[in-house]
Amino acid sequence: MIKTTKWSPDTCGCSISYQWDSEVPEAERVHTPVESVKCEFHKNHPDVKSHFGAIEEENGRKNVAIAEILENAPSIVEEVEDADGRKQKTFKSGKEPKWHFDENRNIVFDLDHLKPAEKAATKSALFRKHGARAKAQ
Ligand SMILES: [Zn+2]
User: Any idea where the domains of the chain sit in the sequence?
Assistant: First the structure.
């Protein structure tokens, strides 16, 4: 059955509607963008496919960077159990790192609340994953 999902990433003001087939196993599912609303930063994408690709990349880059911070900054991280009893790392309340995108759509994290050694380790981890596309200050 073809379903339509509307997705609004937390990395910008865009929203995308995409279609997928609920009879296809999750790992093989294809998301086909069909309609989008563009924010100020993404208004120049010529078609819905390139638009979807751009905001997926930015959102994915943010998620990978957050995972790196969770790995490298134990002083602001705690482990919680999810509903299935699996341990998950999460930021302690009030310790979530703030981030924004600069004018070139590089993501910039504010890591001033990390210990200096954690901040250094996180910075190099981000650089290894994303180069200049994910920075920390
Ligand atoms: Zn956007």
Answer: 2-136
